[in-house]
Amino acid sequence: MTYRYDVFVSYSRRDHFIVMELVARLMDSGLNVFYDEAEIAVGEPLMASVRQVIQDARYVLVVMSPHYFASQWAALETGIALQQEVDSNFTKVIPILVEDCEIPALLQTKVYADFRTPESRQEAFPRLLRTLEAAPISPTLKNQEAATKSPRLGSITPAVAESAEIWEMIEDLRSKVEGFMEGTESNTDKNTGDDTYIDPKLCFVAMPFGSQDLTDVYEYFIKPSIEYNCGMKCERGDDVFGSNVIVDDIR
């Protein structure tokens, strides 16, 4: 596959200075870097354009900090990139830690670059550059790199790669989204025989939200898949009914 960009940088504007230092070093190394939504032509739909730029990039650098994870826009970019990684089964998302923060569970599974101090940045950059200059590989470590002491950045950490549970969850989610998309194409009748109005663009998501891990699955996989693949709006069950009532009804 031919890519328009080597790297898409997803970051918070509040981390601008450290990100611009990184971007300059990447560009000086000969990489084609997209890092500013201002480059998108005026008049183009922003979210659709960002999704396309992420698709056109070989890798996505997620610059992790408290500012980043406080941004809803950042979560959308990360979700789109992770979804594309799952669909392609090639590493796309490479986390970079620039400040201590609470990392979402789905990104905790990945090998990240430590850019928290000038010394760690100096040490981590050559390894990051080697990863970005190489062709994408499977995100799991069930390959020739599994036995090395320095797995490629963005790969799934060994403990998670050996866990069948997370891959079963991803495959199950993918099949459900595909089935859902097929259903939205055939089920467009709004008439229910009474006065109830069915919004064909609203998807009601009923699932447990008690743990942060499940919330991350919703925010980074389910919601982006439904909103940006299916063109629909997501509504969480616990936002409407509270955290217990709907779960009791489903049981």
Overview in brief:
This protein is α/β, with parallel strands linked by helices and 251 residues long.
Description:
Helices cover 48% and strands 12% of the residues. The chain has helices at residues 16-28, 46-56, 66-69, 72-88, 105-108, 118-133, 158-161, 164-186, 212-229, 237-241, 245-250, and strands at residues 5-10, 33-34, 57-64, 93-97, 113-114, 202-205, 233-236. The strands form 2 sheets. It has a 5-stranded parallel beta sheet with strand order 2-1-3-4-5. Strands 6-7 form a two-stranded parallel sheet. Strand 6 (202-205), helix 9 (212-229) and strand 7 form a beta-alpha-beta unit. Helix 2 (46-56) crosses helix 4 (72-88) and helix 4 (72-88) crosses helix 9. The N and C termini lie far apart (46 Å). Mean pLDDT is 76; it is low at 141-147 and 245-251.
